[in-house]
Amino acid sequence: MSKSARHEWRDQQASLNERLKGFLQNPGSDQMEAMVEEMRAYADAARSGSIDIPTRSTIYN
After folding, report:
1. How far apart, in whole angstroms, are the C-alpha atoms of residue 6 and residue 11?
2. Average pLDDT over residues 9-32
3. Mean pLDDT of 10-17
4. Which end of the chain is more exposed for a tag (fewer CB within 10 A), N or C?
């Protein structure tokens, strides 16, 4: 996995996490719809191969 692909994946994960936080803080139908839309876009990108998903995590604390 290239460095740019890893950064793109990380950015999409961060966006998805922020959308989820927004829903949890304000669980309205608008927030839920936005979160589901973001999750579908991520799944579609993964399915089509337009993003690379790492096979293992390399997160360091």
Report:
1. 9
2. 86
3. 84
4. C
Helices (H), 1-61: 3-25, 29-48
CA distance 52 to 4: 10
Domain hosting residue 16, numbered range: 3-48
How far is it, in rounded angstroms, from Cα 9 to Cα 54? 8
Does 60 have pLDDT greater than 70? no
Euclidean distance between CA atoms 54 and 33, whole angstroms: 27
In a domain? residue 7: yes
Cβ-in-10-Å burial (0-12, 13-18, 19+) of 8 comes to middle
Establish if 58 belongs to a structural domain.
no
pTM over 0.90: no
Averaged pLDDT, 38-59:
77
